[in-house]
Structures are given as structure tokens and as C-alpha cells.
Amino acid sequence: VRTVLNSGNVVFTMPGSSVGTAARRIATGVATTLGVSSAVTVVSLEALAVQVRREPFAGTGRDASRLLVLMCRDTPSAKRLDVLARRDWGEEELSVDGTFGCAWCPQGIASSALWKAINAELGDGVTARNRATIDRILRGASVPSMIDRGPGGR
Prior knowledge:
alpha+beta, 4-stranded antiparallel beta sheet, two-stranded antiparallel ribbon, 5 helices, 18% strand, globular
């Protein structure tokens, strides 16, 4: 187990476990050890790298710090995210691919109507990292060959 960045992102190896099993074990460990309940989302590095390669805004020259990679905890959350993707968000954009999504928030999340809607609709059902952070996580996990050299890749 090792942390990547100082943001609560952790890279670990758990042979033979599904991401759902890993998330439950980590959540139980946090609750037992720290006495706090926390939503835990586990994503395999391979799935994350595939999503980065398939990211729909690749090659558009967008600021990677304003492009969010969304990771849903489950299929029902992803379906709610997909409903939001069908709305017109003006200059903001949302694309959904399975349990992943990408949100373009050109003015940042603090003033984003899209991000506020995602947060209100999904709450703990989704977690997000900006594309620049995702690239650093993948590099820190030693999978640079998997990183798309699209808008967030350098």
C-alpha cells in the first residue's frame, strides 16, 4: 500500500479480490481503526487507464485541471449520471461510459452547475478527480505506458 499525492488516493495490491470486496474491506478497516464511516471507491488501475484512453474530450486541448474523471460506485449511480448527461449544460459537458464519466467544467467546479447537479444527484455514489491528478496517479503507480497523451497527458 502506498499513497499517491497528498489527497487520499491510495495504490495497493490485493490479489484475488474484486474491487467491491476491496472497497468493503477498506471501509470496514477505516471504521474499525479510526472510528469513522467513509465511502470508499476502488477502481483497478487497468480500468482507470482504459477510461483515460477512451476519454471523449481527448485532443481538444482542454485544461486537464478542469476536466473531471468520474468514477461511480455502482451501476445505479452510473444510470443516474447518464440521465444528467442527456441535459444541455451550455459550455459544460458530461459524457458517461459504463461506471465512468467525464465532466468538462471550464470555469472550475466551484461555479459549475453541472458539478453541483452531479453532487446533488449522486452524493457518495460518485467520486471525481481532475484529469491532471489521474495522470499523476497513473504515473505514480508506474503505468505511464497506459496514459493517453490526450488533453491531460503531457
